């Protein structure tokens, strides 16, 4: 029996994940108290029609009962029921935005700010996150991409064989993104801002792309970046990492970082990788360099 425990940050997509798991043939239970994990496993394994794939969501909605998760996981393994943990995460900024859009209350901030509840929940989940088999950051995933990632991990018991790569262009003048695994500063590349004909355009304009990408420094940089990612990605996958966030930063996040982020993303897609590209500061005022 394949037993998956789904947990993680409130607002990171656990309800959506369990729907996708059901589509993959899992028998699913939402908001299961940790003290019932062993009993649930026993019932599923001893049922008249033995269940081959089961999943249970265990999270902070259980209040104080959630503190019993780690001891009950130990009991589950001692009783001979191996399990996997899928931990869903997202950036604080994304979680706050989702809660504001849904107008729902965070389970740990019913009388306070959402950000305070998120901080408390991160602290409470730290131990279980460390032992998770799969960590999936949903910050930049569309619904379709989220479903694909769940399928990659659990469909046909194949295990996770890929990694989703999120590439974010940004401007250092507006601050660095919080959730990047790799940050590459491309301010060493000649700046189209100083070309009057290019200043009001963006890195998605073909003239700006040509100006940035045909520069000899850029050509060499992209070749070296290709080699670095070719080395890193299979090793990240080997260690069970399911998402890599790469930040590409220039001064304003409008020209160089945009063109380079798109180019790196295109090259990775041609190699068969799943890529999400976001241009955080592309629409900011370019009046200042």
Task: Reconstruct the topology from this structure.
Layout: E1 2-8, H1 14-23, E2 27-29, H2 37-46, E3 53-57, H3 69-78, E4 84-89, H4 92-102, H5 114-130, E5 134-137, H6 143-154, E6 164-171, E7 182-185, H7 206-213, H8 216-238, E8 243-250, H9 256-270, E9 274-279
Parallel strand pairs: 1-3, 1-4, 2-3, 4-5, 6-8, 6-9, 7-8
Helix pairs in contact: 1-6, 4-5, 7-9
Would you write up a description of this structure?
- The structure is a single chain.
- This protein has 289 residues and is of the alpha/beta class.
- The protein folds into 2 domains: 156 residues, Rossmann fold (3-Layer(aba) Sandwich); 116 residues, no CATH class.
- 40% of the residues lie in helices and 18% in strands.
- It has a 5-stranded parallel sheet, sandwiched between helices. A 4-stranded parallel sheet has the order 7-8-6-9, covered by helices on one side.
- Helix 2 links the parallel strand 2 and strand 3.
- Helix 1 crosses helix 6 and helix 4 crosses helix 5.
Radius of gyration: 22 Å
Name the average pLDDT: 87
Termini distance?
58 Å
Name of the top-level CATH class of the largest domain: Alpha Beta
Low-confidence stretches: none
Read across the widest sheet, the strand sequence of neighbours is 2-3-1-4-5
Let me know the CATH homologous superfamily of the largest domain. Answer: P-loop containing nucleotide triphosphate hydrolases
Q: State the share of residues found in helices, binned by percent.
A: 40-55%
Assigned CATH architecture of the largest domain? 3-Layer(aba) Sandwich
């Amino acid at each position: 029996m394949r037993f998956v425990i789904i947990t993680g940050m409130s607002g990171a997509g656990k309800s959506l994940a369990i729907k996708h798991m059901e589509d993959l043939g899992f028998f699913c239970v939402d908001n299961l108290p940790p003290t019932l994990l062993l009993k649930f496993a026993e019932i599923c394994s001893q049922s008249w029609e033995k269940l081959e794939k089961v999943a249970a969501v265990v999270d902070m909605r259980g209040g104080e009962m959630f503190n019993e998760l780690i001891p009950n996981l130990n009991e589950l393994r001692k009783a001979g029921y191996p399990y996997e943990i899928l931990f869903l995460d997202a950036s604080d900024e994304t979680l706050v935005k989702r809660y504001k859009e849904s107008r729902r209350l965070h389970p740990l901030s019913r009388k306070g700010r959402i950000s305070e509840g998120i901080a408390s929940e991160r602290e409470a989940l730290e131990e279980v996150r460390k032992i998770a088999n799969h960590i999936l950051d949903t910050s930049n995933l569309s619904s379709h991409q989220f479903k694909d990632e769940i399928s990659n991990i659990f469909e046909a018991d194949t295990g996770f064989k890929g990694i989703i790569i999120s590439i974010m262009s940004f401007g250092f003048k507006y601050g660095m993104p919080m959730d990047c695994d790799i940050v590459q500063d491309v301010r060493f590349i000649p700046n189209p801002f100083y070309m009057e004909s290019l200043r009001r355009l963006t890195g998605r304009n073909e003239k700006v792309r040509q100006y940035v990408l045909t520069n000899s420094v850029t050509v060499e940089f992209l070749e070296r970046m290709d080699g670095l990612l070719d080395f890193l990605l299979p090793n990240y996958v080997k260690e069970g990492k399911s998402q890599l966030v790469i930040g590409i930063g220039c001064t304003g996040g409008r020209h160089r970082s945009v063109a380079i982020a798109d180019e790196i993303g295109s090259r990775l897609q041609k190699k068969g990788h799943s890529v999400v590209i976001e241009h955080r500061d592309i629409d900011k005022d370019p009046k200042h360099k």
